[in-house]
Structure prediction request, 217 residues.
Amino acid sequence: MIHVLIVEDEKPIARLIELNLTDAGYRTTVCHNGLAAAELLTRESFDLILLDIMLPGLDGYELLESIKPTGTPVIFLTARGSVSDRVAGLRAGADDYLTKPFEIVELLARVESVLRRAGREEEKYEIGDVTILPRSRQVTRAGKPVILTQKEFTLLLLFVRNRNIALFRDTIYERVWQGELEEESRTVDLHVQRLRRKLGWQDKLVTVYKVGYRLED
Ligand code: CA
Prediction:
């Protein structure tokens, strides 16, 4: 099922979009705050994001910066008449925009058209000789398939989506295993070691002293 993230702080609008997309057969998640959306995007992937520009926390433009590397299509939701918003939005890399207030038929048409266009190119990451296709869960190294467990794959995606950022060991644990890390647990370290070995990332997946790990790219 196509999963759409709705980032909109005006709750009645968010609710309206949610109801109509759900009726049209989409799976939806709603976020009313830019920071919460940024956090959510580090651990979940979506097929499409409807993104309001003026948001508490982080605004739509700032959020778009972190969405772009994932390749997820974005439709900006802009206030009526703010032409500069639209131009800036498209220039910043949004796939389309929708002016509020909008007709539901228009919303659905834009969503369909952006998804259709985006369907041609699957989200893909290339780091050194490693290629990762999140949706089909395929990982190759120098063209050869790499077999990863579910947790290893989730961990890999977390690193890939947060390249060059030091991730705390307990944050990693929480995101991948959804629980609190016991102090003596070696789970994260063992999984990192396996990823290093399977992907040849001894130099890329670096240990950050007293913090955790960072994927360098
Ligand atoms: Ca707003």
Observations:
- The longest strand covers residues 74-79.
- Residues 9-10, 52, 54-55 surround calcium ion (CB under 6 Å).
- The mean pLDDT is 88.
- The helical segments are 11-23, 34-43, 60-67, 83-92, 104-118, 150-161, 169-177, 187-199.
